[in-house]
Design goal:
This protein is mainly alpha-helical. It is 83% helix and 0% strand.
């Protein structure tokens, strides 16, 4: 049993180190990946009638969207206010999916998130090496801003 705990602790430390050393673009894509995973798990749990698991996954998904919402700088680009409105709507729908226990609402949330996830992955992949270096220079301030990300990703 102690080996299992040691292994779990090592895994948690590795994941924590990964989060803390990741660029802001990588952190964002990690959040979206975890959000899709949470929605997949929640939908499966809802279909199986596992209310505890669906609640756990949907609550975690809500935490991720809330983190995305509070860290969004709506003044950084013209699309900021629209993305803020989308995150606000998505958060409400995740709450509704949890309250109503409706797998169709959960599936609709996933359908909303997937194109955003793909777009952010594409944007992150298109960063030039010089942009990545510049991003690395800002990593410490970004990590300070993203203190809650480790917990939201299931690391903390």
């Amino acid at each position: 049993m102690s080996n299992l705990m040691s292994s779990d602790a090592q895994r948690a430390q590795f994941l924590n180190d990964t989060v803390l050393s990741s660029s802001p673009a990588r952190l964002l894509t990690m959040l979206y990946d975890r959000l899709v995973l949470d929605l997949d798990r929640a939908g499966k749990a809802q279909l199986a009638g596992d209310l505890v698991e669906s609640n756990t996954q949907l609550t975690h998904a809500q935490d991720i969207v809330a983190e995305l919402l509070v860290t969004l700088d709506v003044t950084a680009w013209d699309g900021g206010p629209g993305l803020h409105a989308l995150y606000t709507h998505l958060l409400g729908e995740l709450i509704r999916a949890n309250i109503t226990r409706d797998p169709q609402v959960t599936a609709a949330c996933r359908a909303t998130v997937e194109p955003l996830r793909a777009a952010w992955h594409e944007a992150a992949a298109s960063l030039t090496p010089s942009a990545a270096r510049s991003s690395a220079a800002n990593r410490s301030s970004a990590n300070a801003t993203m203190v809650g990300v480790g917990g939201v990703l299931g690391v903390g």
